[in-house]
Amino acid sequence: xxxxxxxxxxxxxxxxxxxxxxxxxxxxxxxxxxxxxxxxxxxxxxxxxxxxxxxxxxxxxxxxxxxxxxxxxxxxxxxxxxxxxxxxxxxxxxxxxxxxxxxxxxxxxxxxxxxxxxxxxxxxxxxxxxxxxxxxxxxxxxxxxxxxxxxxxxxxxxxxxxxxxxxxxxxxxxxxxxxxxxxxxxxxxxxxxxxxxxxxxxxxxxxxxxxxxxxxxxxxxxxxxxxxxxxxxxxxxxxxxxxxxxxxxxxxxxxxxxxxxxxxxxxxxxxxxxxxxxxxxxxxxxxxxxxxxxxxxxxxxxxxxxxxxxxxxxxxxxxxxxxxxxxxxxxxxxxxxxxxxxxxxxxxxxxxxxxxxxxxxxxxxxxxxxxxxxxxxxxxxxxxxxxxxxxxxxxxxxxxxxxxxxxxxxxxxxxxxxxxxxxxxxxxxxxxxxxxxxxxxxxxxxxxxxxxxxxxxxxxxxxxxxxxxxxxxxxxxxxxxxxxxxxxxxxxxxxxxxxxx
Length: 501
Description:
Distance between the termini: 139 Å
Radius of gyration: 41 Å
Mean pLDDT: 79
Number of helices: 25
Shape: elongated
Strand order of the largest sheet: 1-2
Largest sheet: 2 strands, antiparallel
Number of strands: 2
């Protein structure tokens, strides 16, 4: 109870006992709120008084004044509007609310009292409640099974969807999390469960609702059973020491293999693509044919010929047209190759690995590898600070020995070895690509996506041009055969006419 200070006695109970009346408005049972008040040394009977009035006013009433002069009507349950009040002391003097108190005049509100009562009040005595239909009566017993809700509605809804999908006993899950055991769950599910760990405010609400830790276990379990799905999960989880760190370790473990495979596959594709481009004899010949043709066009056979071109120059071959505005330089190059070195036309067979490499982002691989290195460090730290019977001797032990004492610790040692292997493979890929750029005289700052995209684009144009020329040649051949047949028929008809004469 507040002290005898007249100032405090004159304040409303809603102000003096704000958190407890807030719990009541949030739907926490009166008994649970009274338990919380007892823990704080407050009079639990305060919660039964009018929160909008001061304690002095309610205590000063004589006993006979508290008795109603009129006969009591039936008790009703009234819907409450749980709005957020603004502290009047924080309102600016020119605010709307201050102006409304002094200047805004309202006409009376025309309220239909019967309609208001039917919408927002309900008799507490079930026998006095009007019977509308059988369906409404069937729903009333459910009110006794209504779950206690302590958290935000949207968070509760999203959490319930996840927990319904991942069906597991929360006590079993809590034990697995505490021991950082491997669980059969996807990374997104583990991440979702980690995000459902109670916040500071939610933990405070749970502690205020639940009986004290020294209460009988049956009483604690009964209180938890009355909670909603998310609140039950939180009530079990918020007692786990270092729960977030343990969940992060489990999340890292659940996603480790997929991330390792992504990095391993990406580095492998880059190495294969580099080897394909560098070792393709057909590509080397085509580059020389393109260089010779370009010099012939640009210099007319003078001594001003260039000795090397960038690979993106190959794309210019398709853009430059002859004076007929139909034949490109690439068309002419393909026709020359077709006449002189037909094997070069099979260039795309050499560049199969290059198509996949275009989708590999080396900077993303480097970032993923860095995150894995940071992640395994976090796992090791979590394991070390949660070792059973941790003392100074544990810190002096070799890392392999201290971490090898738990399943998650053994995983961290194995994962660290794999990450080191991935790091070595990635460095090989970087060196191979750097050598490739140097081999072709390209800008060393170029990234693999841009380089292999240029190669793939040119090879696609080269193949497309070859197909166009092939279709034109086939059309010429068909026309030639048709002309020959027509000419042969004309000769035969002419011979028949001579014979007839």
